[in-house]
Prior knowledge:
The complex is a heterodimer of chains A (81) and B (570). With 81 residues, chain A is mostly helical. Chain A has helices at residues 3-6, 9-12, 14-37, 41-53, 66-80. Chain B starts with 8 loop residues before the first helix and ends with a helix. At the A-B interface, helix 3, helix 4 and helix 5 of A face helix 3, helix 4, helix 7, helix 10 and helix 11 of B.
Amino acid sequence: MNKLMTAPFCIRFLPWIKLCSGLVLIWLFVFVAAPRVQKYSYIAKVHDVIRENNIDATALVYTEIQEFGDADVHIRDAMNY
Amino acid sequence: MEEPRGISMLWKLEDYWAIWLGFLLIAIGLMIFLPRPPDGMRENINAANAIMQQEANAAPIKTIAWHKANDSKMKIKASGEGYAKQLANWIAHPQGWKTNPIESLALSQEKAEAKNSSAAPKYEAAQAYTAEVLTEAQEAENAARAAGFKDASLNEKAKSAIAEWRKAVNEESAAKKKASVSSYNHILHLIVLCIFLAVFFGVGMAVMGKSFSQFCAAFPVVFLIAVLAYMLDAQSTMKEYGIGYAAWAIIFGLLISNTIGTPKWLMPAVQTEYYIKTGLVLLGAEILFGKILAIGTPGIFVAWVVTPIVLIATYLFGQKILKISSRTLNITISADMSVCGVSAAIATAAACRAKKEELTLAVGMSLIFTSIMMIIMPNFILAVGMDPVLGGAWMGGTIDATGAVAAAGAFLGDKALYVAATIKMIQNVLIGVIAFFVAVYWCWKVERDESGSRISIMEIWHRFPKFVLGFITASILFSILYQAMGGDVGYAMVDNGVLRGFTRIFRGWFFCMAFVSIGLATDFRELKKYFVGGKPLILYVCGQSLNLILTLTMAYIMFYLVFPDITAKI
C-alpha cells in the first residue's frame, strides 16, 4: 500500500495544508497587508492617481494601455502641427 | 530525442508551429478589421488635421480648438466599432474588481446600475468643473488672440489656463468611465475560449506527435489557473501596485507544484515554450518600427542609444566582474532591467533559451523594483522640481514595466505622461532588435564557445530559434502596413484595430499560460542556486544605477541642449 495512505492524518494531508496556507497568505497580502502599506502618503499619492485615472499599471507592452495610444497621437500632432 | 531536420521541420518543430499559429491569428485579425473602418474615418481625420494646421499657423501655443481636434482624432478607432466590441467580449480577460472576485467574471444589470449611480455625482461635478475651466481657458485664449499672440505674458496665461482645462478633461473622462459601467457575463465566453484554445494548440501537438486527447484533457486546468491569475491582475489594489498576471501565474503555479505537486496527467498541457513562442510571434506585430520617430531624435537617443549601452555594459559587468556562471541568466536580467521589464525578459529568455527558473528570477526582480521605482521616481522628481519633460523622459527610459511608466507619468501630469509613454513605447520596439541579436549571438558565439569547436553556417541556422524569424517577420510586415496607411489611419486601424482589439488579447492569454506552466514545472528550491551570493540582485542594482545616470544625462542633453525646439513643441 502507498506509504502516504498509511501515514498519520496530518502527514497525509500536509501537502494540502501547505496549499491552503499559501492561499491564505495570498489572501492576507491582497486584502490586508497591501491595502495597509498603501496608506503611506508617498505610496497613496501615486496609487490615487492610478485609481482615479483607471491606469493599468500591470501592463507589459504599450498596446495594453490606452494612455500610450493617446500619447502617440498627441506627440505626433504636436510635432507636425 | 533527435530534432527533425529537412522539410519535416515545418510541421514537426514547435518553433514553426508557433509561427503558423501566430500568423493564423494575425491573418484572422487583419481580415476582420481592415475591411471595416469606422464611418467617415478619412474625412474626420482630414478635418481634424486641417483645424490643427490652421491653429498652428495662427498661434504659437496649442489652442483649445487644436486640443479638441486632437481629441476627436483619438476617438477614431476600429476597436470602438460594434463588431469589434462583440469580438473583444469573446476573448476578454477578467474585468476589474475590489472585494468580490465574481465581479471580474460577471456583473448583473442591478449592480452595474448601482455602480453608475454611485459614480454619477462625481461625474456630474467633473462635468461642471470642466465647463467652468473651459470658460476661463477660452477667455484667456481670446485675450492672447486679441493681442495677436504677441504678448508673452498673455500667451503664458492662456497656456496655463488651457493646461488646467486639459487636466479637468482627463478627470472628467475617467469619471465618465466609472459612471458608464455595463453589465457583463464572461463565464460562457471563457468556456468557449478555453475549448477554442485547447483545439488551437492541440492540433499542433498532435501533428508534432503528441497526444491530442491528453493535451485537451489537461489544458482546462492550465487555462483555469490563467483565469485566476488574470482575476488577481484585475483586483484594484494589485493593479495599483503593478502586480500583474505574470507574477500571479507563476505564484499559483509554484504554489501547486511545490505543495500538492503537479499531477502527471496535467503535464501534457504544461507547455511553456509553445505558448511563449506563439505569444512572441503575436508580440512581433506590436513592434512597429515607425514608432521610434514618434518624438524625433531626442527619443531615439534616450531609448535607442542609452538602452543598448546599458544592456551590454550590464551583461559584461555580470560576466567579467561578478562572474555570473549562467550567461543566459545574465543577459535575461540585463535585458529585463534595461529595456522594458517582463516583455523584454520573455523575448530575450526565449531567444537565448534561458531556463525557466532564470526567467522567473528576472521577472520577480523586475516586478519588485518596478513597484518601488514607480513610487520613488515621480515623488523625487516632484520634490526637486524637475521639468516634466525631463522627468518623463527619465522615467520612460528607466522604469522597467510599461504600465508603471504610465502610472508614474500620470502622477506628474499630461506632459510628463506623454513624454514618458512615448519614450517607453520606443523602447518597447527595441525588444525585436534585441531578441534577434541575442539569438544570433547565442548561436554564433556563446554555444560555439561552450562546445569548443568551430560550427558551420548550416549548424548555426539549425540552432537558431526559428520562432524569432516569425517574430521579426510579423514586426516588419506590420511596420510596413502601418507606414503605408500613415500614422493616423494606422493608429485607427492597426494600433487600435487588429492589435489592441484582437492579437494582443490572445498574446496576453498565451504569456499568462506560459507563466502558469513555468510555475507548474518549477521546483522552488531550484531557484535558490541561481541566487548564490546575491549576484543577480547586485547585477540589477548596478545596471539600474548606470541606467538612471545615463538616461538622465542623455535626456537633459537631448531635450534641453541639442533639441530645445522639440521640447518647446511638446
